[in-house]
Amino acid sequence: MTPSRLPLTEVHPGVWFLDTNQFGAAGQGGVYVLGGKPAALIEAGTSLAQERILTALERLDIAREDVGWIFLTHIHLDHAGGAGGLLRELPAAKVVVHTRGARHLVDPSRLVASVKEAVRERFPLYGTVVPISEERLHAAQDGEVFSLGQFRIRAVDAPGHAPHHLCYFAEGQKLLFTGDAVGLYLEGTLIPSTVPPSFDLDLSLATLDRLAALNPQRLLFTHYGPGSPQLLPQYTALLRSWVERVAEIRRPHPNEAAVVERVLVEAERDGLVLSGPARGDLAMSVRGVLVYLDQREGRT
Predict the structure, then answer these.
(1) Rounded to an integer, what distance in angstroms lies between the CA atom of residue 77 and that of residue 129?
(2) Which CATH architecture fits 3-235?
C-alpha cells in the first residue's frame, strides 16, 4: 500500500490512528502513532502489520531513529506480536510492557503456545514472533510517567482482561489508550473481550473503576478507534450481563461447544455479533468466561 492510500487518521493533534488490517479485515485493529521527539507507537499489532507501520512513519515524516518507545498494553499477539520485528527497524526504540509480561517477550514460546490454544484455527492470522532482548525492554511500574515532547504518558496497571495489562494515559490531553481493558468497540458497538486463559471479572470491574477515576476525555481503543468516556460505565454493565449470560447458558449445556454456539445465537439475536473476525473474537470470549467460571468454582 502506498503512503498516500494508507488508512491513517489524526484523532487528536499529534496522535494518529493506523488501521493495520488486522486478521485481513479493515476496522478491526490498529496502532497509534504519537509525534514528537521522541516519537512513539502505542501497540505493535501482529508481525503482519510491520510494513504498514513503517509506511505510516514515512508518511508522517517521522524518522525511524526518532521512535523512542513502543508502548504495549499487553502481550497478546494482536497487540505485541510485531514488536520484535519493529525493533529491528527502529534502532533507538525500547518496548514498554507490564512487569508480568516482559519475560514472555524475551522467550515467547509459552506465549505462542497459549495463543495457539486460545485462537485455534485462526492462529496463522497472528503472524510470527521475534524474541526481544532484555536490554530493549522496559518493564513499567504502575504510575510511571514517560515524557514525550508534548505528551506525558502514564502507565496504569489494568488487570482483568489479562494480568499483564496496562493502559496508558496522556495526562495533559486526558486521552486514555485502553488496549482491551474496555473491550472492543467495533462499528459503534461495545463487545466483551473476556478471552482465555486469564480473564477475571472482579479485577476487570476494579480496573474500570480505576480508569473512570482518571476522568478521561476520550478513549482510544486498539479495536477500534476513538470513543467517549461514557463507554466506561457501559462496559461495566455489559461485562456483568455477559458473564451472567454465559453462566446461565452453561448450566443446562453439557460441553463447551454447545455453550459457545448457544451464546453466539443469542448474541446475534441481540445484535452483538458483527460480521467478519468479530464473531471469532466473541467465541473466544465465551471460552474465556467458561475458564473463569470453572476456576471460580474450583473445577480446575
Answers:
(1) 8
(2) 4-Layer Sandwich (3.60)
